[in-house]
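Researcher: I need the complex structure. Ligand is magnesium ion. Inputs:
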Amino acid sequence: MSEAVSAPAVVAWMRAFAATVAREREYLTELDAAIGDADHGINMERGTQAVLAKLEGASAAGAAGGLGPLLKTVGMTLVSTVGGAAGPLYGTLFLAMGTAAGEATELSLAAWAATLDAGVAGVRARGKAEPGDKTMLDALLPAVEALKSAAASGLSLEAALQGSVAAAEQGMTATVALVARKGRASYLGERSAGHQDPGATSSWLLLQTAAETLAEQEGGGTTP
Ligand code: ADP
Ligand code: MG
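Model: Output:
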């Protein structure tokens, strides 16, 4: 187990996320059919497959370069391929993470928590959603808080990532009861309650695949 997040680990994360989104595409689309326009699974699959293709092409370079450029490549690819509301928001998440990571080649748990924090702050600024608005933020924000407190308590990277998945899952589940105040689902008003938010669900999958991959890789430029 590694105690730092490396570029090969981020590449492995994106591979795992693309595979999971492809597997869960119908589920994400069903959730969006209930309170949106039934395209979230398709949008996310298109974006994550494009990221995969981009990283295959630049695999060696991505693993050798800093984390900032790698995360920004992911972000730019998502912005230009996902579409819908989620495209710019997921794109911003990775672009802001890339800016925060800068030229670092490895990030400790505390630095990783700060990087994700910056990404989520970017999503919040871009989408102007608040916690409890029934959006992806309701999964992302608790996950960041869990990572930060895990770092403060000296937990291992692995344990911290697991804790962030549990926090995201709780936040995702809590969106069921909420009335949407942002995005397409907000057009439904009270009728949006009783359904789980699709974006919070894809964000939970993002954190779940992070926990499966980010602590697995040892640093040092090995290709996953
Ligand atoms: P669209 O709504 O354009 O069809 P998607 O279906 O791909 O886009 O994504 C919908 C998801 O985007 C929602 O479930 C929600 O989590 C997220 N979302 C929408 N608007 C916002 C916002 N302003 N801030 C944060 N997340 C948002
Ligand atoms: Mg949609």
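Model: Summary of the prediction. The chain has one domain: 4-213.
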